[in-house]
Amino acid sequence: MKRLILILGDQLSPDIAALKSAEPGDIIVMAEVADEASYVPHHPKKIAFIFAAMRKFAAHLQDAGWQVAYTRLDDPDNSGSIPGELLRRADQFGTDQVIATEPGEWRLIQALNDVPLKLTLLPDDRFLASHHDFEIWAEGRKQLRMEYFYRDMRRKTGLLMEGDKPAGGQWNFDHDNRKPAPKDIIGSGPMQFAPDDTVQEVLALVGARFGDNFGDLHPFWFATDTTEARRALTHFIQTALPRFGDYQDAMLAENRFLYHAVISMYLNAGLLHWREICDAAETAWRDGHAPLNAVEGFIRQIIGWREYMRGIYFLEGPEYTTRNVLNHTRTLPALFWGGETRMRCLSKAVEQTRTEAYAHHIQRLMVTGNFALLAGVDPHEVHEWYLAVYADAYEWVEAPNVIGMSQFADGGIVGSKPYVSSGNYIDRMSDYCKGCAYDVKAKTGEKACPFNLLYWDFLIRHRERFVGIPRMAQMYRTWDRMDETRCDTVLQDAAGFLIRLDAGQVV
Ligand SMILES: Cc1cc2nc3c(=O)[nH]c(=O)nc-3n(C[C@H](O)[C@H](O)[C@H](O)COP(=O)(O)OP(=O)(O)OC[C@H]3O[C@@H](n4cnc5c(N)ncnc54)[C@H](O)[C@@H]3O)c2cc1C
Ligand code: SF4
Questions:
Q1: So what's the pLDDT on residue 188?
Q2: Which atom of ligand 2 is nearest to the CA of 346?
Q3: Would you say the CB of residue 301 lies under 6 angstroms from ligand 1?
Q4: Which residues lie across from 4 on neighbouring strands?
């Protein structure tokens, strides 16, 4: 009996498990559905990227001889959901057998399991660590530190290994990284692609249906197939990787990409595989093209952080996105959706998010994430914002980064302490503060940088929880040594700021 082979929008890999198990006569099912495109208000560039890449992948499968039942968003028969499309295709082709690869979101896994058809759900083996591997690694550990997981992944892959020792004698070269941005940024940024006919058609559709969502659809320059994504990868390795390590934490208002790869959307959708990316980076080091600190740092993000985040998401279960151990309840301020703000760092990070559907790690963590955490925003709202606005956002990777790493809402599973900072960190790592309406050096008063005020407000609000963490104790000692009147003024100014924020005033 023929079977339906389901391929989702982030499963665009020729070796995806469901496709590997397909046989001649099976029907490949792919569908652009309203449910997936609108369960959060996705950035129009993200929707266009996924639909365009899906259409090209489907064409590629058809050229290879597969029968593809492809539903376009505007097809009159489109049922609007993945389960609905499976039922419709099952009826059309007279089968009740479905083979799918496990989706990267609990919501969709549940939805597939609920479809009244005979479903075989295969593990997504495009990752280095299976759920079982991660469970075994996590078992019995008091703390799930990424660094130890990463070392296991280095051993497992042999990447940057010399025998059983790490290349260069160290596992991690981060102390060589984290330099502030230099004035002379060289490099042309990520490779950009002119929209072809398929992309143009999708852009028209997305513009008409999702044009009111937060985010600019044009100019659209993403790669939308594997050939293009590989060219973008090669371009990164040749032009940016050598300086990736040094400047990975730096931020510049007028240089959005610095030396970052800008490949996460391609990797997460299946256009690239982690192995080819890491092999290309390692080769660049072995050929003397890129230094070890850059290549180690880059490979760590992929076989370390990325795999670790996925492991946490599936280990912690469907309730993870509702965690809120700090009991933060503030509504996400309008400035996250482009509302006016005098804070230049936030204004620039949000503006870049609006135009590119991209911000690099430190902008996400130490500008938007830091502000949301310090201001006590409801982490679920923060999670939904990140899920909506970035082209690379899928819940398995976004949620642990937001709920865990950025908002500390999981109580310290991902991070041993919250990622919070005053304005000083942003000033050191960026050029945002020059030209800001606030004064990063001012600790109180009208011109005081809001990060300075909220930083103390946050630490004092959560003193009981954090004072015992060794790496935070120093901050509490500093506070306790401060003049009492000054402490009162800081907290009063912070409270005043939050009142203005809640009242919708421009802050
Ligand atoms: C609050 C917050 C939300 C995030 N949401 C997402 C998300 O939805 N999707 C996503 O892919 N990444 C997310 N990240 C991780 C990271 O910011 C992005 O992967 C990175 O910015 C993508 O840009 P790049 O390709 O230029 O990455 P580079 O800086 O060049 O890094 C190379 C690659 O490493 C991987 N990587 C790096 N850091 C991480 C990480 N912390 N977790 C997982 N993979 C990582 C990515 O695949 C990335 O392409 C988030 C980080 C934070 C702090
Ligand atoms: S002064 Fe404060 S608000 Fe302004 S850019 Fe610097 S860190 Fe951001």
A1: 80
A2: 8
A3: yes
A4: 27, 98
